[in-house]
Amino acid sequence: MKVKEIYKGYIWYNGEFKSWQECNIHVFTNSLHYSSSAFEGIRSYNGRVFKLEEHIDRFLYSTSILGIECIYTHRQLCDATIELIEKNNLENSYIRPLIWRGDKELTIKFIDNDINVMIAAYDYKQSFDIQKTLNLLVTSWRKAPANSMPHQAKTAGNYVINITALSEIKGTAYDDVLFLDNEDYVAELSSSNIFFVQDGALITPIANCCLNGITRKTIIEIAARNNIQVVEKFITLEELRYYDEAFATGTASEVVSIKSISFDKEGVDKVTFSDNNVTVTIAELYSDLVGANRI
Ligand code: PMP
């Protein structure tokens, strides 16, 4: 997505609405060097921001993990988000808040650097597409143990391993990577959670070495309301052969069917999921809940 080419309107930048051309940072920006930034990914559907409070809760949690005190309150950030999409005339949008340490001082130890916050929002309509399926490669990189990485925070640093793993599939036909944790249990994709389906029930990894995504939690709630059983468990690669369907979940991608998971780059050893009936049901329930326009 070439954001600069599609961006229209304002960015909320340290409490003011500015044009995107005005929102630049210096090369000495501390967070650019040491990853001390945190962000969120939020969506609005037909003018309504989905789970805004939960996203801002997580944003402030991520901020606290970095030892940054955000000078804006939860209420101010929620209000700024709503005002931004109104000011930019956005109905269906992707919203990106970001907080970072500025350019007052370059050393890593200078944690009292100037703190900057911005919220950007741009037109984004992607919704469940029944034709879309993912082919995944199990990356050789592992998710760090829970005591070595703050998995519930969306800090830039959390994404270093994700970007590293994605470079493994550059130039291949794979759409994404699947991470295992340090004990070889299934964890998550580069920017989404994973679910499997077995005999109509949903099975998903325990979220200790992956982000407990807001979409993941929403899907679990939807399943409970619709009498669909959900099992959270440690999942090994061996058991994937017994599952009927698989799908990925995330704010940006919503619900996407997974077609195959390859255990080696050549795709010799892999599992293929031919069904997606339950996935489609879940995707439609999710679409209805968020208020998306169905394709
Ligand atoms: N895992 C990772 C690593 C992610 O980046 C995301 C996207 N935020 C998710 C899972 C899904 O989280 P959510 O449903 O909150 O968007």
Task: List the keywords.
D-amino Acid Aminotransferase, Chain A, domain 1, 7 helices, 9-stranded mixed sheet, single chain, 295 residues, binds 4'-deoxy-4'-aminopyridoxal-5'-phosphate, 2 domains, alpha+beta, 7-stranded antiparallel sheet, D-amino Acid Aminotransferase, Chain A, domain 2
What would you say this structure looks like, in words?
The protein is of the alpha+beta class and 295 residues long. It folds into 2 domains: 3-123, Aminotransferase class 4, branched-chain amino acid transferase, N-terminal domain (D-amino Acid Aminotransferase, Chain A, domain 1), CATH 3.30.470.10; 133-292, D-amino Acid Aminotransferase, subunit A, domain 2 (D-amino Acid Aminotransferase, Chain A, domain 2, Alpha-Beta Barrel). 24% of the residues lie in helices and 30% in strands. The chain has 7 helices and 16 strands. It has helices at 3-6, 30-34, 52-65, 74-87, 160-168, 214-225, 277-290; strands at 10-13, 16-19, 37-39, 42-45, 48-49, 93-101, 115-123, 133-143, 176-181, 186-189, 193-198, 201-205, 230-233, 245-250, 254-262, 270-272. Strands 8, 9, 10, 11, 12, 13, 14, 15 and 16 form a 9-stranded mixed β-sheet that branches. Helix 3 (52-65) packs across helix 4. The two termini are 20 Å apart. 4'-deoxy-4'-aminopyridoxal-5'-phosphate (PMP) is lined by residues 41, 188, 191-193, 210-211, 213-216, 249-251.
